[in-house]
Amino acid sequence: MSEVLEEITPLSEKDCFYIVDRHKTEFTYPLHQHREYELNFIENAAGVKRIVGDSVEEIGDYDLVLICSENLEHAWDNGRCSSGDIREVTIQFSPDLLSGSLMMKNQFAPIMKMFRDADHGLAFSRHTIMKVYSMIDGLASVQEGFMRFLKFLKLLYNLSGSDYRILASSSFSHAERNPESRRVQKVKQFINDHYKEPFRLEDLAAMVGMTPTSFSRFFKLRTGKTLSDYILDIRLGFAARQLVDTTTNISEICFECGFNNLSNFNRIFKARRGVTPKEFRAMYKKNKVVV
Questions:
Q1: pLDDT band at residue 290 using 50, 70 and 90 as cut-offs
Q2: Cβ–Cβ under 8 Å, residues 19 and 140
Q3: In this predicted structure, what is the pLDDT of residue 86?
Q4: What is the DSSP letter of 107?
């Protein structure tokens, strides 16, 4: 992605994390990515458009997002926001910070799972934000470095046990979901390799030695999605990736990604992504910076 700004963060090798608490009137930083993990809190910015991979959402008064991937593009666009006093608290830390044998202990398992999920970007619920608000609010003002780090760990732990949503699709972010059963992995890999082709439930079920009915229940239980919804999301992710990375005609992308009707593709993309394919491409082009 040579056209996306590669951010060089102010994080020092000797620091555990970098935090900045600022007030602003608008978002001006373009679409970017960086190696460091980032927890970003935004207050009083209803109407701002958040872009994380192929996820495009308009935020409310509060927004809290965790990104743990160096290849996941993200940005906040002013959108319909009219606030004159936006607060943004950004915490950045190295992927190497929480590594080693200590992090393999059971007590850190929820945090490590959250980091794996955040390969695709995570958005936390308003209920969760309100629960951790005081932790975020006072973190930058803690003077003693060790105590600030302990409070940061406590914040991560609280977030790891809370409700959150995965934002970007796996086919867009080039990152796999969490480890799953071998049967689910086998089917997912087949779908990823053949997403342009039509699928029959009977054939996918036969791949893992199950009846179609049993496989449908099994897949939904293990992934949280129906098989048809999963296939649709994979195709949309690949389509979004092509909209960003190429100048290929939208109708060609539609058929290349397994859709057989352009109007149906436009309708589904708008319903799932909040914008049309044309608007999505234009939005990424607007936010990109050549470096």
A1: very low
A2: yes
A3: 97
A4: G
